[in-house]
Structure prediction request, 484 residues.
Amino acid sequence: MLDPHHTSVPRGCILTGLAVFGLLCMGCMEESPPARFTRQIEWIGKGQWLKADTHLHTKFSDGAHTVSEVVARGAGHGCDVLAVTDHADRALGAATPEYAEAIEVARREHPNLLILAGLEWNVPPWDGDEHATVLMPAGPDEFLQLADFKKQFDDYGRDSHDAALADAALTWLALQVDRDGIAPVVIYNHPSRKDARSIENVADLQRWRGINELVIGFSGAPGHQAGEPLGAYEYREFPIDRWDPAAARVGDAWDALLQAGIDVWAARAPSDFHKVAPSGVSDYWPGEFSETWMYVPDRTAAGVLRAFHAGSFFAAHGHIIREVRLVVVAPGLERPAESGEAIEVAVGTDLDISVEGLVPDFDWSGMANRIDLVELIAITPDMARVVAEQEPASGTRLLSTTIPVPQGGLVLRARGRRRVADGPDLMFYTNPIRVVARPVEPAHVVRLPDWSRSQLLGLGLCALAVVSLAVSVTQRLNSKSAPP
Prediction:
């Protein structure tokens, strides 16, 4: 039989002590770090938008118009940035002293216009079948550098063709960084025009990016949008709603590269202007139909090249949209992430994603304008698909959705369309945002810091003292309440 006057420690006191011990442990546990940037564009929120066309031709190669005329027309169609990029065939006039003088004259004629000097490179080992835009940092040596590049590395008409020459060209270009750290830009043009399958572009871009990151990506939309066939695609692959299938077909080359961890930018829509003619093949003037909008740190040639490297640009056809922003909000992130950036977020975290932009009342032809559908594309380690689509209401927010971060992370890109009843739709595309997934431990696992034995002993003694105090208080209470 139990002694009714026996002093025992109530279970509640023991539980209280254990609870305090648990709280002490929890207080010492590390909380899951908030989302953070792993690649950040410093001018987001304080830059400016510039309209650019960085792929056009003049009489210095196979174009039909002078540099001054093409530049004047581009300025008239609202371009802030133009790059003269005549073919680099060694028998043509690009990168000659006359070429340099014509560009300098155009710069004097249009002091508020940014006119970049470049070339369209015949990329080894394909003779003249594959092309890339090469843009040099503006400066006293830009034309000498272009001439040197043309002489050493253009592949057209060579006696032999070797892919190693392209590797050497990229290595050489990496040495042409200017005193402010601005590097040249290389962009693969009309990538699927001569391909049997657009997915072939993956291997080419992987090779070039294995040398360095000067090849920032490819033209998601080819030029030659006024003629037939669209983009001058006459082989086996053809544009989808005016965009190269490498970008337009979900899961194709662009997504495969992103899936492989290679961040390339393809939200570019140049004119590839050659000529305007009353009959036969003709092009839209720079800026007339195709637009690439750059979000730059400042209105300089260097700012444009920095934006190309960063991925802070989008592209559209038909003047259907302005100031497009793909935005990702994550808990703890210092500000929303935007195209070209990368963030690290814990698995399972909900991301608030939006696509924002200004929709003009009228399109390039003066017709009433609208955006009919906006799509969000997600690329994970095992798939690429459209994960959200919305018909925009009025206002600047065109799409809004929430997605949890999966194991392995994801990459997000967006596009929008204006439906055209009797032809290909008018589209816009953004560059991607990468979301790196930070693993989280299961909830039942208690993760303690790396304590020394003395620290663990001290913590145990603290817990023991709490239990001892509870026992002492209980004994005093029992002694006072005991009968005399």
